[in-house]
Amino acid sequence: MEAGYRRIPLGMTMGAVLERARRLMRIRHYSHRTEATYVGWIVRYLRFHRYRNPIELGGAGIAAFLSHLAQRGRVSASTQNQALSALLFLYREVLGVPPGHIGGIVRAKRPKKLPLVLTKAEVRLVLAELSGAKRLIAALLYGSGLRLMECLRLRVKDIDFEANRIIVREAKGGRDRVTMLPARLKPALRAHLERVRAVHARDRAEGAGGVELPAALGRKYPRAGAEWGWQWVFPAVRQYWDRATGERRRHHLDPSAVQRSVTAAVRASGIAKRASCHTLRHSFATHLLEDGYDIRTIQELLGHKDVSTTMIYTHVLNRGGRGVRSPMDVM
After folding, report:
1. 168 close to 176: Cβ distance less than 8 angstroms
2. What is the structure's pLDDT at 5?
3. Is 217 within the bounds of a domain?
């Protein structure tokens, strides 16, 4: 371990700082991904300054680190903003001190890129190259406009077959929303859930079969994690041992497995586009606009806080030249 690695302010070890950060994020119900990301940025920040006391560094230290990310690391603007959020959390919540003025930051350039969109025919080609749960996931990304993690975090109780809707819990920004359940996917989704239920019953018979619950619910209803309604719609193949409870549980599918499958499907389909899971969500929004649905409805389905975020899809409609017909086509 490097010299000075343990010597962090106020007599706290670096491990104590990180543990306090994790504990505070769990109290505030931050997601596991956010927790891991913030801890990673805090560690990088402390290493960058050779484990000097961050209270002494203050805003100038934050500015130096963020500028380094832009100039040497060549990170994107969103990545730089993510690092800033993590460091503000470190100062304000973990250390309990104001960071001070953060000025003179070299900002990462925010490229003006239009989202990549597949045509309806291309979506069909990609889905044809997938099978099983991963095909169903990809179909929901396109058919319901879900983000990948929103889809993987779905619980059985979030699927409303009668009302043809999906409830997305604690989506981006911590807000719930409702989107449609495509009628065409209902038979395949019902059959999939029957298979999942059989796996859950087998797990229960073997003394396992629980899933992790949101922190407050897990404490209030400790046995609810074994109930059918709380099970993941897309559970992982393998179980794991939960250190806190000592129980065998299942997590949801790993996003990287789905991402690899979709990338391989795009390649196998022969489509000359670098499409990904998120491309299916972009395609969902664009195709709804093409079909005449209003921008506010699409904003609600996507869960965008600001309609300006949704407006970008108006620029990628399949209407070359802003919908104007070329004189060549009317000769």
Report:
1. yes
2. 37
3. yes
